Amino acid sequence: MTHHASQVLQPPVSEPALAVLAKPALAALALAVTALFAAAVPALAQDPSSAPLPEQQRAPIPAQPTVRWAPGQEGKVKGAIMTREGDEMLVRQESSNDISAVSLTDGTKISSPSGFLNIDKKRQDVSLLAPGLFVEIHGIGGDHGNLVATRITFSKRAVKVQNSIAAGEVDLREKQAENAAAAQRNLNMINAATARARDSLAAFTERIADLDKYVVKMQGTVYFASGSFELNDASKQVLDNLVMQGQGLQGFMVEVAGYTDNMGSVALNQALSARRVNAVVAYVADKYNVPLRRFVNPTGLGETQPVGDNMTTEGRALNRRVEVKVLVNKGIAAADSSANKR
User: Fold this and answer.
1) What is the phi-psi region of residue 73: left when phi exceeds 0, alpha when psi lies from -120 to 50, beta otherwise?
2) Selection from 120, 129, 119 nearest residue 149 by Cα
3) Per-residue pLDDT tens over the stretch 157-173
4) Same domain, 91 and 153
5) Sign of CA dihedral 336, 338, 341, 342
6) Is the domain of 106 the same as that of 229?
7) pTM (2 decimals)?
8) Which domain holds residue 134?
9) Which of 25, 39, 172, 302 has the most C-beta neighbours closer than 10 Å?
10) Pair (229, 135) in one structural domain
């Protein structure tokens, strides 16, 4: 952040006035003016209205690709993932402002160094490709200026850093501000990082905010016994029906969110809701070979967003659930609708 020094303009004194002032009076006047402005400068520096807006209050500027890859052009990008929507990512080249659109395919190989001297390569899951991860991408230019990734590598350390950021566990200790307002903002940030349950909900909301460009094509809800994350036959049937209805869909995403009732501790319910989500994702991915990149940030949200009354047995049963929504891009959905009307 660039700091601009405050400039204080000394009011002019006319020559006639100076002429009538005795030398002792001039010296006293100079000392008084100097003391006055010395006291005024810190006050100006602490005026919140004159300070630049903090980063949190500035309107975000949507990232756009700045690099266009020619079709068939071999290329390499090394830097951090900025955003990801399904198979599409934006990656910023390290030490520059160059941003490339990168596309994933079923043939993209994802790995990280392993073994003695990191000579071997270990295959990694596509779900690890999340914003904040530092990657090296090799690929070939696509049809719309994008780079179609053929090989992506990243280190274990990069995954740890990205996971820490996503979980709100990175200690963001900034230089202590020179005024009370900046100090209060830092304190609020630290307090927010320790609110685990609220962080989970906020991160979930933020990372699917860009899904406004998608519409819900179909949805279903599966329910669980108290304290359990095992799928029963009825739950599996709901998931089977969703997959059958979605056959042939193009450009779809799957949003999965898990919940619990309010029985037990908040921490245990948070973990239980995450296990329920994992059970649903694993069933669909294993049985129907649905790529994991199609699942949008599957998240357990614990006791939040109850749909039933937790004071009753029936209400608690309704809250022990996982909601599954199949989303389709609005443009694709509109095209399908037009085709059906012909």
Assistant:
1) beta
2) 129
3) 777 776 666 555 444 44
4) yes
5) negative
6) no
7) 0.42
8) 74-166
9) 302
10) no
